[in-house]
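In this section we walk through a basic example: taking a raw amino acid sequence and producing a predicted 3D structure, encoded as discrete structure tokens. The instruction is simple. Fold the sequence below.
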Amino acid sequence: MAQATNFTGTGVAIVTPFTTKGEVDFPALTKLVEYLIKGRVDYIVVLGTTGETATLSKEEKKQVIAHIIKTNKKRIPLVLGVGGNNTADLVEQLKKDDLSGFDAILSVSPYYNKPSQEGIYQHYKAIAKASPLPIILYNVPGRTASNITADTTLRLAKDFKNIIAIKEASGNLEQCMKIIKHRPDNFLIISGDDNLTLPLIASGADGVISVVANAYPKDFSDMVRHALVHDFKTAQKLHYKLMEITEQLFADGNPGGVKVVLAQKKITQPTVRLPLVEPNDAVKAKLKKIAY
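The resulting token sequence is shown next.
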């Protein structure tokens, strides 16, 4: 089983490149994986929200997984997004699917159902019992319409040794600090908000799963690396260098913004799949002006 220390630093929620016809662009995916590894990111998260996983067919998901594993060649750890709002289905998936090639799973809190805290606990308890890999919880109330409270996170962290971390995207710094203060040994707090990564690390968090690092892997991972060794002067320079760009990347939907910048870098096309559309012209113009 992978150790929790593998997931300190910068993880990247990798986008799924599409051609102008909307098909998965595997040459661009190869180029992107190489770009991320060259930029010294610490691990890649496959089939997350940023990967537009909800719009991929089962066959496409298998192909994307196989392609990234083949391209990566075990150079950096890989995390697989395995989440949903049907607990029994997820348990069966974890029991049946071939998870070789991955070092952990990232599992988002159930969306749409709006379960109670006890329901969230029981959901992750079932996943913890079924998963052959370490589990990173994912709290993103802006998408799921429910929050994993600090108390529930701590309960899960203490009750299940294979729940090794949480990606926290609640935007609630006090909640994150409560988890940091009371967490068990070796339980990681991972930022899910790019622009809050520096203050979270300053508070004791362990890294980030980033969207922005798709386009700026070196600068973002360097910022995190400096922050983790308390070189905040250097980290602050990189943080503020990226702050306005980060705001614009999310100004009209994710991953539309980061794909625009990746297109400017000639790595991918800016194509997204419905119901997402490309960012509006004002955002594109702003990104063209400030992106580098």
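Looking at the output, two observations stand out. Residues 232-249 form the longest helix (18 residues). The chain is about 45% helix and 15% strand. In the next section we compare this with other chains.
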